[in-house]
Amino acid sequence: MKILSLDSSTELCSVALWLDGEMLVREELAGQRHSELLLPMVQELLTEAGLDLKALDGIAFGEGPGSFTGLRIGCGVAQGLAFGADLPVAGVCTLLALAEASGASRAIACLDARMGEVYHGVYEKIEGEWCTLNAPGLSLPQQTPDVAGEHWTGCGNGFAAHGEILRSRYAGQLVEVMPDVLPHAAEIAVLGAAQFKRGFGMDAAEAAPLYIRNKVALKTSER
């Protein structure tokens, strides 16, 4: 199976090509340059692999949560490429991608949502498959969901932005914290390939970002 994946949900812009388990990757800290970087990165990987889009089995993208602008760009690029090559697409949750990147079997994934909040999700891998224990949500760091048991890994830049609060929130339950992990196309390729194998690919027209939050900034009176 040959899967192209991309993610632009954070400041990291990444593209990966999954070739029956082998991986080619491009990544760059993009700031606000995702729209400039994604397509050249895609072309570089396809050229390196000696493939064109129509030789692929599908396109996966980081559906969110994350940066509003980044999510729109990522979804739009995935849709455009998929339409042109008549390929199915798969949206992969960025929080689940964090859990996959952690290498742990029990992950509390948190992304900095700005405005003093975090996006969060709780996942456990059972017999090689991720189970969602708490669906993606948005809250103040001190109000993230309770989790049962111990041996949890905290991952994502939510732990960089609100590490003290989150460590206190899950005191005695965390065995490791990985604050520098960001959603990446490599993990999205792995998770997207699994979705395609299970027949969960969708028409490009059905692809949509997972925003969770509808409000992107505080009003002056709220700051």
Key features?
alpha/beta, five-stranded mixed β-sheet, disordered C terminus, globular, 223 residues
Description:
- It is a single chain.
- This protein is an alpha/beta fold and 223 residues long.
- It is built from six helices and ten strands, in the order E-E-E-H-E-H-E-H-E-E-E-E-H-H-E-H.
- A hairpin with a 5-residue loop joins strand 6 (106-112) and strand 7.
- The longest helix has 18 residues, at 68-85.
- The termini are far apart.
- Residues 215-223 have low confidence and may be disordered.
Low-confidence spans: 215-223
Beta-strand residue percentage: 25-35%
The geometry reads as globular
Kindly state the percentage of residues in helix: 25-40%
SSE diagram, text form:
Blueprint: E1 2-7, E2 12-19, E3 22-29, H1 34-49, E4 58-64, H2 68-85, E5 89-93, H3 94-102, E6 106-112, E7 118-126, E8 129-139, E9 152-155, H4 158-161, H5 163-169, E10 174-178, H6 185-197
Parallel strand pairs: 1-4, 4-5, 6-9, 9-10
Antiparallel strand pairs: 1-2, 2-3, 6-7, 7-8
Helix pairs in contact: 1-2, 3-6
Short description, anyone?
The chain has 223 residues and is an alpha/beta fold. It has six helices and ten strands.
